[in-house]
Prior knowledge:
The protein is an alpha+beta fold. It has a single domain (5-156), classed as Beta Polymerase, domain 2, CATH 3.30.460. It contains 6 helices and 10 strands; from the N terminus they run E-H-E-H-E-H-E-E-E-E-E-H-E-E-H-H. It has helices spanning 14-29, 38-49, 70-82, 132-137, 157-170, 177-186; strands at 5-7, 34-37, 60-66, 86-87, 93-95, 101-107, 116-119, 125-128, 140-145, 150-154. The model has no long low-confidence stretch (mean pLDDT 89).
Amino acid sequence: MMSTLLNISGKIEPRTVALFETVSRVMTDLEIPYVVVGATARDIVLHYGHGAALERATIDVDFAIEVPNWTAFDALKNRLCEQGFKTSNAQHRLISPMGTEVDIVPFGDIENGEASITWPPGDEVIMNVLGFQEACDTAEWVRVQDRPKLDVPVVTPAGLVLLKIIAWSDRARDLRGKDAMDISYLL
């Protein structure tokens, strides 16, 4: 990860800071590399970090996590549930104690060799994770709280554009509008 530090302390909601505190502590305890991705990453860097207008509000927080296997993924989910998170019908989604949707997408050795993962049981659901390793490797540190100090890794705007282009190419034509708007905003 890069050593760049963007300080947005005092600019985001306390409930989001609390979520980052818990997730960061659990990831550190389990030695899981992670990066904040998605619309929350966009808002952290562009809106809170650089004053750009908020284009569209987001209600969830997305994390990409580097894990070797489903056992490590399940261990993370279990540890977060011990901290008050709740499971949902979607395997990659938890609900924080304050009601925020938290999406956790695994990548790394868990991949099937084609930059995708297949969700158990049955391996019917396939998810493209192309670009997540690069997003994690080039993430920028963002200080979300000064006291006590809390820094989280966040995907760069360039990394987010890459992830959005990949998502856009994966979606059906009629579902690409949101990705196209996000790419335009990021550029």
